[in-house]
Amino acid sequence: MTGVAGPRDAAPPSHLPVMWAQCMDGLRVRRDGRYLDGTFGRGGHARGVLDRLGPEGRLLVMDKDPEAIAIARELAAADARVAVRHASFASLGEWDEAAAGLDGVLLDLGVSSPQLDVAARGFSFGKDGPLDMRMDPTSGESAAQWLARADEREIADVLWTLGEERMSRRIARAIVARRGEAPIERTGQLAELIASVVPRGDGKIHPATRSFQAIRIFINRELEDLGRGLDAALSALRPGGRLAVISFHSLEDRIVKQFIARHAKAPAGNRRMPVVQDFTPVLRDVSGALRADAAEVAANPRSRSAVLRVAEKL
Ligand SMILES: C[S@@+](CC[C@H](N)C(=O)[O-])C[C@H]1O[C@@H](n2cnc3c(N)ncnc32)[C@H](O)[C@@H]1O
User: Fold this and answer.
1) What is the pLDDT along the chain (314 residues), one digit of tens a residue?
2) Which residue has the least CA distance to atom 3 on ligand 1?
3) Potential cystine with 7: which of 43, 103, 170, 199 (Cβ 3.0-4.6 Å)?
4) Which protein residue's CA is at the shortest distance from atom 5 of ligand 1?
5) Which residues neighbour 272 within 8 Å (Cβ) at sequence distance 6 or greater?
């Protein structure tokens, strides 16, 4: 946020880059380095990296979202150091520019504010729109298409495992009953349906919050992509290169934390196998779990749940 120029003056609701200063510190950008921002969004973090790169540096950017990519292409047209690829960061190893070696990889996970704010993207239970939720609406199945065909058990499992929704079975049953009467095609319809079967609790969060999160993570294969992206980033990083990942919920953070630990620390011995041999760390845990400070949380409530982890390739 601090010191970042607005990516595009005419852009609709702009995205506030979360934990921007800590990311820049963590990446320790070298002027002649090659960096990859796998989640370009509106380019707040990417611009911070570019500002720190010299004329010999290179910034590769990826995003699943065609709207984000359109803005990245404008940036690339104005700055020859920037290269753009419309794809999931899970496939970064298939991009020869990235496979050539990287000095840093940044992943700022999840959805961007513009995706949440625009009703037509179908991410928000607060704004009625088509029930889509795809970061890349040009490929794969929308949330409405999946809810129209999935069986009750599968829906309940997704709500439980990806949303930790205790009422998962009740909600899945209601969805299957309702779609027998009429297709569920709007975010407003789904939010109302969930609210009608889930007690409001303490009233702090909308009763559809957890279900919407779960369906979004499922539709975009977010956890699978994260696992593949971390492996690919580790392969592409050069010695001394930095990996910085911002997560927004515990399922993501657990994957990042365990990934770093697995490559940084010898697994603890146990009674059956007391001595673990031949472990060579390939990562160093640089930061542990970093959180946004109080001033940032006050200015940008979305940063409240952010956890940044930084690791260095050895
Ligand atoms: C939180 S925003 C990133 C904001 C960005 N750091 C900025 O400063 O504007 C997340 C972005 O990552 C994209 N995204 C999420 N998962 C992705 C993936 N697996 N591959 C590529 N892009 C992804 C989303 O489409 C969204 O644009």
Assistant:
1) 333 333 333 333 355 699 999 999 999 999 999 999 999 999 999 999 999 999 999 999 999 999 999 999 999 999 999 999 999 999 999 999 999 999 999 999 999 988 998 999 999 988 999 999 999 999 999 999 999 999 999 999 999 999 999 999 999 999 999 999 999 999 999 999 999 999 877 667 899 999 999 999 999 999 999 999 999 999 999 999 999 999 999 999 999 999 999 999 998 877 777 666 789 999 999 999 999 999 999 999 989 999 999 999 99
2) 41
3) 43
4) 41
5) none
Q: Give the distance (Å) from ligand 1 centre to CA of residue 152.
A: 30
Cα–Cα distances (Å) from 86 to 60, 64, 250, in that order, read 11, 6, 27
Residue 214 near residue 159, CB atoms below 8 Å: yes
Tokens 């930084």 correspond to what residue? 310
CA atoms of 28 and 46, how far apart (whole Å)? 13
Using CB distances shorter than 6 Å, the residues near ligand 1 are: 15, 17, 38-39, 41-45, 62-65, 68, 88-90, 108, 110-112, 135, 225
Answering whether pTM is above 0.85, one says: yes
**How far apart, in Å, do the first and last CA atoms of the chain sit?**
30
Q: Which atom of ligand 1 sits closest to the CA of residue 221?
A: 19
- CA 281 / ligand 1 centre spacing (Å): 29
Q: Which residue has the tokens 């297709």?
A: 183
88 CA distance to ligand 1 middle (Å): 9
User: Which residue, by CA, sits nearest to atom 14 of ligand 1?
Assistant: 39
* Tokens read off for 212: 């919407």
What is the 201 CA–ligand 1 centroid distance (Å)? 31
Query: Exposed, middle or buried, 109 (CB in 10 Å: 0-12/13-18/19+)?
Result: buried
